[in-house]
Design a protein that fits this description.
Largest sheet of chain B: 12 strands, mixed
Strand content of chain A: 15-25%
Structural class of chain B: alpha+beta
Distance between the termini of chain A: 55 Å
Oligomer: heterodimer
Number of helices of chain B: 22
Radius of gyration of chain B: 31 Å
Low-confidence stretches of chain B: 9-18
Low-confidence stretches of chain A: none
Number of helices of chain A: 11
CATH architecture of the largest domain in chain A: 3-Layer(aba) Sandwich
Radius of gyration of chain A: 26 Å
CATH topology of the largest domain in chain A: Rossmann fold
Number of strands of chain A: 23
Shape of chain A: globular
Number of domains of chain A: 3
Structural class of chain A: alpha/beta
Largest sheet of chain A: 8 strands, mixed
CATH class of the largest domain in chain A: Alpha Beta
Strand order of the largest sheet of chain A: 9-6-10-12-13-14-17-18
Largest interface: A-B, 50 and 51 residues
Shape of chain B: globular
Chain lengths: ~450, ~650
């Protein structure tokens, strides 16, 4: 694809090449009795090759269809817009240093007004330009680690994130903020919760449901309060910071092991499951919502355990699901299978032999519930007892996603089956809550 | 001082007495933007019904809109100022009229094709050229009227024209866009908006700036409005059509006036704006004659609270008791000019005050040209001393928290400096009386970028051909039809055409046997009269009206009963016209009953009839019967029966 004629293909590309024009040039298109003049705009690659997009003097874009009598000519070269960042706002002296590791996603993007394309905005300067108030809160040490949509992240990226966070913590950061796409932010939050143990300071994942180029974006407030909590929050845990409601007035901090994305588009998409959120920030003031939490203690020694075993699958059981799924995983050398069973933790009896075979082949099989809320209890019904007898490990009220990440992590720590089981059953980062409260 | 005051009075009189303005001489140019709500099944980018709600809101949420940078890294100064001042927007919603899309909690759905078709239909009626591919854009607006911070809008056609009194007025473009949320009020730093109106589809028609007189501006708006209504896809009634006016004169400035809702107001708004600009130009010349220069206007704000601690001016004393301060600024050489009237009952001082209130949240603002009557001479004396003001100077005072009062007075000095340059470019809002008020600085070039969440739409030639082949009847044709087919006279036909009831009229004529003229006068006159008397006519549905006219067509109800039935129905929502007729005792009398009544009254009044003669008695008796049985009898039947009966006295 031609850079200067981005998005154009086939007929349109040929026509524009012949006219010797580039995106951004002022062009005149004549067709029948009609004349259109405007800036040549790029075309979305998902659209057809029969139209040319121009921006009229009024600012509106229109598409002009290519017909046999069409004529395109260059009026003049376009003025290439040069984006100059506003000067960095004055830093409040003595403010704490906060590391900002950016990995991509909506929060770290801005629109190119000329083309309408979304591109990454990663430098500290750019963040300050979007949210100048940041300078009043902390001294930001920004780092662009990746620029990927969160669905493209893998456990390897978790490892890298954990290592970078550890690097900044050891370098004396008052806290670490990780800008992250929201789709898989819950998984990363769980991964960092297990990989970064004995945390001295908070590690805060933050995202946005509306891109930061929009006046209504939730990015600015989320980012500002995440940085504030990283700098001053009393807790030292891995959390997700996002809107508490549809309003721009409060931010909640969800524990990394208890958080789940629960809505496709709302600002308050993240929910703490089987637990209240850890804390809430309103008008710049933080309030803890849980008494038992890990306190900030910069003198503490961080333990970094960043390895994950990727051959672990999360399998959702459903009526009629084929047990061959489990068989295939065993054959393919999977080391762990986390089942998302029905209700209190069941799968149909037509899966029993496959599950049994998996356990006998040394594959770790654990049980969570697809109900999302509540805890599994495999002693209530026969089928549950049967599964327990086969060696399926019940994971109590742990979220299926957290269970997947924890199993990957546990298998990444040791090869010893017994030790892995012990790690799974141990409450390492508040992934288990002993009491389920009525809420 | 006395001489200056006299001169000022004279100037004021002359400026007001220039009753007729030669608009071609002042170089008037007006362009119109007509915004018309569409009457389609759902909103432009979601499946909510395009309706408003009257009840208490079911949900509210608080937002801040952050000014985003332009492609050059710049931020609109007025927008950024509002943001820094902590403007918050409280949005109100209910479930029947909005969903997550209006809340900006869900991406937009596909563009409403029914609305697009209505816009294209209109475009073809004015001979505009539909674009080949429609691209939805985001136009940045951060005053809170859009939850997203931008308005979604798209050009559907370019060019076209309308003819007004023999003159061709070119149309620049026809757009389809979403209506904004409704501003419900402001409370300090919080603006309240209701999102029911947000997303209602609008057609925006932009004319070229070729209109050269106030009257013509009104005519163009009327013509465009009629064409829009001819599509039969538009909403009717107050608030469903709004005009923005772009007005400029030679040596003046381009002023954008937003939100003129009533057609009759347009010529007035144009005239007042021309007068305002002419007055400002004159004001500039006077300031020059007084040797006032921009550098004389200094941002030196003096705290004069002490001068007013014992003031009799109630509002001022209350503010001071609350800890607010009174800050003053001296405008050298401005004495008398602040009370200069720019528009009816709007002085230059008022214009400064509007500006000051936009930039600073103040309790009060007043000036020495237009002092509240409660301010004493001693206070003025003291003020002048403190400010070292001469007779030819004016002083403007702002009351509020110090920071706010400073912001307000900065706006005042800025406005004073602008007066030396002439007419400042700004966006103004129309008042219901035709005057305008400062709304905000004129924004720079519209900041628009593509709405990437909505795919573009191709308008194929075949589709355009199909639409072209079945265009609705044009207003002129419709007028002829109303006159020829339904026998309305021209005045009534025009009234129906321009009323919100044109479609209803046709429906009622087709579906009932009531005379078209009766239906027309009921819809255009009777209902309006009832409305004026405070009857909530809007509560009466078209179904109920149909029932009324069906009864009239069948001879079951007298036309005289219409106002009573409509009034009853407006007070008894959900009940039928039949129930109204029964409850009001308006069931028509049979001919036999009527005959008996006529005979009876004639017999009882034999004396008078004989005394005055049957001819003179007729009116008397007719009146008596109608008083008693109005609504239950037909006057023509009574009249003929009575005549017949009286003839026996011959």
């Amino acid at each position: 694809m031609s850079e200067s004629l981005i998005g154009y293909r086939g007929e349109a590309l040929k026509l524009l090449r012949e006219a010797n024009v580039e995106v951004g040039d002022v062009v005149r298109i004549t067709k029948g009795g009609l004349v259109y003049e405007g800036l040549l705009m790029p075309r979305s690659m998902y659209e057809d090759e029969r139209h040319i997009v121009i921006k009229l003097a009024s600012g509106y874009n229109i598409g002009v269809r290519i017909t046999p009598e069409i004529h395109v000519e260059k009026v003049r070269e376009g003025v290439k817009p040069s984006f100059t960042l506003p000067p960095r706002p004055e830093q409040k002296p003595g403010s704490p240093k906060v590391a900002l590791v950016s990995t991509g996603g909506t929060i770290a993007s801005r629109v190119d007004y000329r083309t309408g394309a979304v591109r990454a905005a990663l430098s500290a300067e750019e963040l300050y330009s979007i949210v100048p108030e940041l300078a009043e809160v902390a001294n930001i040490d920004a780092e662009a680690l990746f620029s990927v949509y969160s669905e493209n992240l893998t456990p390897k990226h978790w490892t890298a994130m954990a290592e970078r966070a550890a690097y900044h913590i050891k370098g004396g950061a008052a806290g670490v903020v990780v800008a992250h796409g929201t789709d898989t932010m819950g998984y990363t939050a769980a991964a960092l919760s297990f990989a970064l143990q004995n945390l001295p300071v908070p590690v805060i994942l933050v995202g946005a449901q509306r891109s930061s180029d929009r006046p209504s974006s939730d990015a600015a407030l989320n980012l500002l309060e995440a940085v504030r909590a990283a700098a001053f929050g009393p807790f030292a845990e891995v959390v997700v910071a996002m809107h508490a409601s549809a309003s721009d007035d409060s931010i909640v901090f969800h524990r990394g092991t208890k958080v789940r994305k629960c809505h496709t588009s709302r600002r308050d998409t993240f929910r703490s499951i089987n637990s209240p959120p850890l804390a809430k920030m309103e008008h710049g003031k933080i309030a803890m919502l849980i008494e038992d939490y890990r306190k900030r203690d910069p003198s503490g020694e961080l333990m970094l355990k960043p390895n994950f075993e990727e051959k672990v699958a999360l399998v959702k059981f459903h009526p009629g699901a084929s047990p061959k799924l489990v068989k295939w995983l065993v054959e393919d050398g999977y080391k762990g299978i986390v089942l998302e069973g029905t209700g209190l933790g069941h799968v149909g009896d037509y899966w029993f032999s496959a599950v049994k075979e998996a356990v006998e082949n040394g594959v770790l099989v654990a049980m969570t519930s697809q109900c999302i809320w509540g805890r599994v209890n495999m002693k209530v019904y026969d089928q549950g007892r049967d599964l327990l007898a086969m060696g399926v490990i019940p994971l109590d009220d742990m979220l299926p996603e957290t269970a997947l990440v924890k199993t990957m992590w546990a298998l990444g720590q040791t090869k010893d089956q017994k030790e892995v089981r012990n790690l799974l059953k141990a409450n390492i980062a508040y992934e288990y809550s002993p009491r389920t409260l009525y809420e | 001082m006395a001489i200056i005051a006299a001169v000022i009075r004279w100037l004021a009189v002359t400026s007001r007495s220039s009753a007729s303005i030669d608009y071609s001489k002042v170089g008037l140019k007006v362009g119109l933007e007509v915004h018309q709500q569409l009457d389609v099944a759902h909103k432009l980018f979601c499946s909510c019904p395009p309706r408003l709600f009257k009840e208490e809101p079911e949900a509210s949420f608080l937002r801040r809109l952050r000014p985003t940078q332009s492609e050059l890294g710049q931020v609109d100064p007025a927008a950024y100022f509002e943001f820094q001042k902590g403007l918050r927007i409280s949005y109100e919603a209910n479930k029947s009229t909005s969903c997550l899309v209006e809340m900006d909690e869900e991406p937009p759905h596909d563009l409403n094709r029914e609305a697009l078709e209505a816009a294209l239909t209109f475009a073809l009626m004015i001979d505009a050229d539909p674009v080949d591919e429609v691209h939805v854009m985001r136009k940045v607006v951060i005053d809170g009227s859009n939850t997203t911070g931008f308005q979604r809008t798209c050009v559907v056609a370019l060019g076209g024209e309308v003819e007004v009194s023999g003159k061709v007025v070119p149309i620049q473009q026809v757009c389809l866009e979403e209506d904004a949320a409704r501003l419900m009020g402001k409370d300090g730093a919080i603006a309240f908006y209701r999102i029911d109106r947000l997303g209602v589809p609008l057609i925006e028609v932009t004319t070229a700036p070729v209109i050269t007189s106030p009257k013509e501006a009104g005519e163009v708006a009327l013509t465009v409005g009629r064409l829009l209504r001819a599509t039969r896809k538009v909403k009717r009634g107050l608030g469903t059509i709004r005009q923005d006016l772009n007005i400029s004169i030679r040596d003046g400035a381009l002023i954008e006036i937003k939100g003129v809702q009533e057609l009759e107001l347009i010529p007035m708004v144009v005239e007042y704006e021309v007068r305002r600009q002419l007055s400002l130009i004159k004001l500039r010349e006077e300031l020059k004659a007084r040797n006032v220069e921009e550098r004389h206007i200094k941002d030196e704000f003096v705290d004069v609270t002490m001068a007013f601690v014992n003031t009799k001016y109630e509002a001022l004393r209350k503010s001071i008791e609350e800890g607010k301060r009174v800050l003053a600024v001296k405008l050298l050489g401005f004495s008398g000019l602040l009370r200069r009237e720019l528009m009816p009952n709007v002085s230059f001082g008022d214009e400064m005050a509007d500006r000051a209130r936009f930039w600073g949240r103040i309790d009060e603002i007043f000036n020495t040209d237009e002092l509240p009557s409660e301010i004493s001479n001693e206070e003025v004396e003291l003020l002048s001393q403190v400010m070292k003001a001469r007779d030819e100077d004016a002083i403007v005072l702002a009351v509020g928290l110090e920071e706010d009062a400073i912001d307000a007075l900065k706006a005042v000095t800025e406005r004073a400096r602008e007066a030396l340059r002439g007419v400042p470019e700004e966006t103004r809002a129309a008042n219901p009386n035709g005057t305008t008020r400062y709304m905000r600085p004129r924004p720079g070039a519209a900041r628009m970028y593509p709405e990437t969440d909505v795919p573009s739409i191709r308008i194929e030639e075949e589709y355009v051909k199909r639409l072209r082949s079945r265009l609705p009847m044009r207003p002129e044709q419709m007028l002829k039809l109303l006159m020829k087919e339904y026998g309305l006279n021209e005045k009534l036909a025009r009234q129906v055409l321009d009323s919100e009831y044109c479609e209803l009229f046709e429906g009622l004529v087709k579906e009932t046997k009531a005379p078209p003229t009766l239906i027309a006068t009921t819809l255009t006159e009777t209902l309006k009269a009832l409305q004026r008397d405070g009857i909530e006519v809007s509560r009466v549905s078209s179904e109920q009206l149909k029932e009324i006219f069906t009864m009239i067509g069948r001879g079951e109800l007298a036309k005289e009963a219409i106002p009573d039935v409509v009034t009853w129905l407006s007070e008894h929502e959900g009940l039928t016209a039949k129930e109204a007729v029964e409850s009001l005792g308006l069931i028509m009398l049979s001919e036999e009953e009527l005959e008996r009544i006529v005979k009876d009254i004639v017999r009882r009044n034999e004396g008078i009839i004989k005394q005055r003669g049957p001819k003179a008695a007729f009116g008397l008796l007719m009146g008596a019967i109608m008083r008693e049985y109005r609504g239950r009898v037909r006057a023509d039947v009574v009249s003929s029966l009575l005549k017949e009966e009286l003839e026996t006295f011959g």
